[in-house]
Amino acid sequence: MTTRSFSDAALNAVTGEARKSMEAFAQALVQAEGLLREYHATTQAQFKSSHPDEMIAIRENSRLIFTLSWTKAVLFSRAIIDQVNAGNLLAAFQSLRAYAELVATVRFTAKEMMPLIQDAAETGSISVENARTLSSKLNTLLHGGRFNWPLYFEEGAKAVLDRKRAKTTKEERRKFETNSLRVGTCFEKWAEEEPAVEFIYDYLCDLVHPNKGSNLILLVERGGNVVFDTSPSSQMGWVIFGRIFPFAASMCLRAMGEFQPIFALLGAEDEARSVH
User: Fold this and answer.
1) Closest to 146 in 3D by CA, of 177, 168, 175, 171
2) Rounded Cα distance, 248 and 204, in Å
3) What is the pLDDT of residues 8-66, one digit of tens each?
4) pTM for this one?
5) Each residue of 188-243: pLDDT tens digit?
6) What string of DSSP letters covers the chain?
7) What does 78-131 look like in DSSP terms, one character per residue?
């Protein structure tokens, strides 16, 4: 497997702090790739229908979420490095924001599950209600979304549009729609503990949406004039990248390291845990 790292040209385009952060980010990618390979080698994390036994379902889904989130983290990280090296900062920011959203949803779910996990650890058992709650939160993270994939594969795009446009009651929506996490809520909860998170996410969003931020990173000086261009030599783009990358990368890496062990723990074999 080829080890990815930021090019000398990319490293030289930013200040010392950003350069150190980029080097640390590339090293974290190597560690994440190794962690994922090791986990697959030692743990059964197979995608299949949910087991009727809640405790088995929790264990299996936790393993899936652990591997799924690290797989996405690795792919986002590779894309960020490749796109930065190519000077495509617009695409790099898209990948960085997607990485941040992944982390926010995983963190949100882990934080919501922690009281139930702590209670189970203290008592040595878990209630049926708490087991169902844990299973539901894992299912939302694993299968949640606003797009109706089952209906699409079974009946096609028209059926999806017809269902979306139809007037339905709350009861009908609960029956036919899949639960999903609202990314904005995940960041709002995170920002209650770490206010800088809100600023970082807003910064990244403006660099992805068709707003002034995403326009600024395309400005290139040519022949004494400033133009929009695909050239990787946008000084403004590199300034904007250098100012946010150390904080966004640190935010993502820290949260992944902090909350991913929770899913590894839930996915571990534990015959001593009982349901009451």
Assistant:
1) 177
2) 9
3) 999 999 999 999 999 999 999 999 999 988 888 877 777 777 778 888 889 889 989 99
4) 0.90
5) 999 999 999 999 999 999 999 999 999 999 988 888 888 898 887 788 999 999 99
6) -PPP---HHHHHTS-HHHHHHHHHHHHHHHHHHHHHHHHHHHS-----SPPSSHHHHHHHHHHHHHHHHHHHHHHHHHHHHHHHHTT-HHHHHHHHHHHHHHHHHHHHHHHHHHHHHHHHHHHSEE-HHHHHHHHHHHHHHHH--SS-HHHHHHH-HHHHHHHHHS---HHHHHHHSPP---HHHHHHHHHHH-THHHHHHHHHHHHHSSSHHHHHTTEEEETTEEEE-S-TT-HHHHHHHHHHHHHHHHHHHHHHHHHHHHHHHHTS--TT-EE-
7) HHHHHHHHTT-HHHHHHHHHHHHHHHHHHHHHHHHHHHHHHHHHHHSEE-HHHH
